[in-house]
Amino acid sequence: MANPFVHVELTTHDLPKAKKFYSALFGWKLQDTPMPDGKTYTMINVGDGTGGGMMTAPDPGIPPHWLPYVAVDDLAASTKHAKELGATMIMENIPVADFGKFTIFKDPTGAVIAMWQGTGKM
Q1: Cβ count near 122 (within 10 Å)
Q2: Is the whole-model pTM more than 0.70?
Q3: Of the candidates 60, 21, 64, 18, which has an alpha carbon nearest to the alpha carbon of residue 42?
Q4: Exposure check for the chain: N or C terminus, fewer CB within 10 A?
Q5: 61-77 burial string, b = 16+ CB within 10 Å, else e?
Q6: pLDDT tens for residues 12-39?
């Protein structure tokens, strides 16, 4: 399948509560990873299928939400194409250590989605 969903991320204001809820509900294996800014990113291992992560919202004005990531081969070209098709950029070509980079945007209907270009080191 071209351009599959590769990661799903929860942003929340109560990370401990979310971790307790989802691990109890689905049996997900969670692993906390320290981030350079001193915060924690929790990786979600679901076994088979697309995994993800959880984090505390960086701003109190951001509502809790799930964000799907779609794999692309060329993030810069895909970001440009999304703009040409009417997308509104939220964050563009953001590096994540040496694991890859992402773009987050709103589609023309207002729905938010992300694209991910990995380096293969994850």
Answers
A1: 13
A2: yes
A3: 18
A4: N
A5: eeeeeebbbbbbeebee
A6: 999 999 999 999 999 999 999 998 888 8
